[in-house]
Amino acid sequence: MIGAVIALLLFGSMGIGAVTILLLWLLGFRLIPNNKCAVVEMKWSGKGSLKNCIIALNGEAGYQPEVLRGGIHFRSPLKYRVHKVPLVTVPQGLIGYVFARDGEPLRPKQTLGRVIEESMEFQDVRGFLMNGGQRGPQRGIIREGTYAINLAQFVVILEDDIYHLPINKDDLPTFRKMAKIISVREGFRPIVIKGRSDNIGVVTAHDGPPLKPGEIIAPQVGENTPSSKLNHDNFQDPERFLAAGGKRGKQYQVLVDGTYFINRLFATVEIIPKTVVPVGYVGVVVSYFGSKGEDASGVDYKHGELVDVGHKGVWKDALMPGKYPFNAYAGMVIQVPTTNIVLKWIKNQTGNHKLDENLSAVDLITKDAFEPELPLSVVIHIDYRKAPLVIQRFGDVKKLVDQTLDPMVAAYFKNIGQTKTLIELIQERNEIQDKSSRDMREKFLHYDLELEEVLIGTPSSSANDGRIEQILVQLRDRQIAREQLETYARQQDAAMKEKELNEAKALAMQQRALTESQVFIDIQRNKGKADYERSVQEAEKIRALADANAEKEARIGIAQAIAIEEKVRAYGGPRYQVLQQSIDRFAQAVEQGKIDIVPRMVVSSGNNENGSFSAFENLMLLLMSEKLGVDLVEIGEPSERSRHVKEELLRKMDGSETEKAEAA
């Protein structure tokens, strides 16, 4: 009655709008935006209040499990308190972590609350709690997306934000501490192992039963079949991992190339490089994980056991060159070179494998009390099939060199040095080298090594001892003298050979000339015979022509004589005949010499009537006098000269006629 009276009084004093607002408030009108949800808190209930929990599953007073989604809802403020909270949004490619405020307590061996499939990604609080959900940090994570989560029950921790409903002032520092731990482990982002990086991920589980005493690494569990309930999908499903028998601690199974959404509160991942066995090496595996296997080294091998792959100990089969996702926490891989190893017992020098860093030249004491340092180089080879035996026996190759090969080789050559003088040690180096290779090969086989070659250098003296250098100088001088003698002998032989060569060249040249002369003689002989035959033929020809010409000339002469006689008779005697012949010959000479008959200039010395001659007449007189041998200088007058020439001409002509007559 009192409430009704008060309501009537209020109604009377207020307007219609105020009454409407008041009625809506009394009815609990609530408008929830679509980007938010609301957590409902019941102030009072006839079922009483909660004990040891904060979520009321049975209508008790307290936070209710269901949230109000976007829209209009009616919750009377007299009974309910409505807390509007944002929807939880996880960005793409990131991970959200969940902390449950209510649920069953964690067991002593647990660190995270189990995953409840019925919770619908933590959006169904009732399903979570009714199916055994546990309070505290959860194994399950939420991936990218938007979720309507009851923030009174669950706190969602993201990289940049913490979604929660403030209940206790001490809650937020706790959640921030949890966020810091996740951030240090880079847990808000997935694990990405790139193929080009040649890395693998070693997983350490922080939840599950502990390892047994003596175990240092957890065995691989689960099945690779996707549909199997024991396939934990590379630690991304913690519940299946634990159901398959997974234990906390370092895991034998590693993560290879790929992207993994792993709860870092459940398991952390350490990125380590893959095991690379280069070409020219093999990898001997010393496993710290596995059960005890049967010895595979054989009865005669008494330095340890070799086991099959997967067992604890030294594996009998070495890893061939390549890349391996080997868990370095489960064992180690000792690389053993399979190419030739050069070990140098030489000060300040090492081989390519750097196994002889602690070696130096061997100190000897010779038979003649010298103390030289002997540099050595030993070439060995390790069979890849025997590499596990070497590692089982010595631990690694460097220990083999330092602890076994160094004292063995040094002792052998010290014994050799005591039986040789310094000069013998130098001069017989090749023989000592061959003998040492034969003797030491069997010793090296005893250590499962193959000796390829032993190389001995020149003995040298220490820094404070110069006597060996004096011996070496004497040996060098002696050798130089031998070489000079050898050089002189070779030069003498060369001179003799040069002499023989020159003689052979001279003989060859003379032989050539002799051959050429012999050929020339044969040619001349043949040519003489040809000339002789030709001359005989020519003589015969000449003789025949001479006979023919003689006969012809005789006949021509007789004919000419008869003709001349007739001509003489026709001309009036021999004198006129000679004159005619002279004129004819003169005419021929003038014609052949192209002499002008008519002179271009006429020089007259007088006329014929006065007894003078023209120039032509004088010339004719001179020519005729020269032919007749008459000297006209002694004759005075021209007329006298002409007469004298004529007389001489006639006399000559008479003489020639007389000779012709006698000849006829």
Tell me about this structure.
With 664 residues, this protein is an alpha+beta fold. It has five domains: 30-184, no CATH class; 191-273, no CATH class; 275-336, no CATH class; 339-465, Band 7 domain (Tetrahydropterin Synthase, Chain A, 2-Layer Sandwich); 584-663, no CATH class. The protein is 40% helix and 19% strand. It contains 13 helices and 27 strands. It has helices spanning 2-13, 16-27, 125-130, 171-184, 238-243, 387-394, 397-418, 422-427, 429-446, 467-571, 574-592, 615-628, 638-663, and strands spanning 29-32, 36-42, 62-68, 71-74, 80-86, 88-90, 96-100, 136-142, 145-147, 154-157, 162-163, 191-193, 199-205, 249-255, 258-260, 267-273, 275-277, 281-287, 306-307, 313-315, 322-324, 331-337, 341-345, 362-363, 373-374, 376-381, 450-456. The strands form ten sheets. The protein has a four-stranded antiparallel beta sheet with strand order 8-7-10-11, with helices on one face. A hairpin with a 4-residue loop joins strand 10 (154-157) and strand 11 (162-163). The longest helix is centred in the last third of the chain and has 105 residues, at 467-571. Residues 1-11 and 602-610 have low confidence and may be disordered.
Question: Main traits of this protein?
Answer:
664 residues; alpha+beta; 5 domains; four-stranded antiparallel β-sheet; four-stranded mixed β-sheet; elongated; disordered N terminus
List the helices and strands and how they pair.
Layout (H helix, E strand, L loop, with lengths): L1 H12 L2 H12 L1 E4 L3 E7 L19 E7 L2 E4 L5 E7 L1 E3 L5 E5 L24 H6 L5 E7 L2 E3 L6 E4 L4 E2 L7 H14 L6 E3 L5 E7 L32 H6 L5 E7 L2 E3 L6 E7 L1 E3 L3 E7 L18 E2 L5 E3 L6 E3 L6 E7 L3 E5 L16 E2 L9 E2 L1 E6 L5 H8 L2 H22 L3 H6 L1 H18 L3 E7 L10 H105 L2 H19 L22 H14 L9 H26 L1
Helix pairs in contact: 10-11, 12-13
